[in-house]
């Protein structure tokens, strides 16, 4: 039986590395036509893929990137708002540019992606809008006040959109992983030699959950899925 992802058309933000790159690669392997958006515009060398230079903090750039995706592939079935940054530390000590970046990229970037993608998903007769949020979108962590704010915002936004878009056939899903070993927050709370990285999940393990959500029958929708590495605590 052909994969339900065969010949679908997907737009993935933050696709140049980490979780987004793993999602783009797995979608591509499943036969999806993929547009990869990031500031670097890397297409990862995926055959037939579209690499797009796009800062998700800038609404006009996201509009242009989605328009370029639809122009190249003819439609849009899947939008994955994955681009994100993190900087940890006490709120009063966080440099303001880091505060601004977490809100502008993690939260506003998701709003920009959704706003540009939704009309295309609806006109396709239904589709999928996913946010790669975080466990930090469900629970508060010390030293993560602004990251928490951006991720709680992302989760609440997607959950509300589910009400708005369900009868239009668009599924809205929050993907909420615990720790993933990537470049994320490197130098801003994480270091390459920190022992915790060892036990974290791989980007491919997170991407598998994204593809699981996308391959459910259209009669089923996953609202929020939360999962963690075996060694990570439950934090309440
Ligand atoms: N790593 C974790 O432990 C973890 C856990 C839970 C949730 N998450 C979430 O997972 C998502 C992906 O994180 P990751 O771990 O894969 O991080 P990562 O390895 O640092 O990758 C981040 C990606 O986002 C892109 N990006 C950053 N700023 C951008 C911008 N302004 N516009 C467009 N693209 C931008 C980066 O590419 P360019 O630099 O080329 O733009 C890169 O492709 C994030 O939303 C993060 O909050 C991560």
Automatic annotation (TrEMBL):
<dbReference type="InterPro" id="IPR036291">
    <property type="entry name" value="NAD(P)-bd_dom_sf"/>
</dbReference>
<keyword id="KW-0560">Oxidoreductase</keyword>
<protein>
    <submittedName>
        <fullName>SDR family oxidoreductase</fullName>
    </submittedName>
</protein>
<comment type="similarity">
    <text>Belongs to the short-chain dehydrogenases/reductases (SDR) family.</text>
</comment>
<dbReference type="InterPro" id="IPR002347">
    <property type="entry name" value="SDR_fam"/>
</dbReference>
<dbReference type="Pfam" id="PF00106">
    <property type="entry name" value="adh_short"/>
</dbReference>
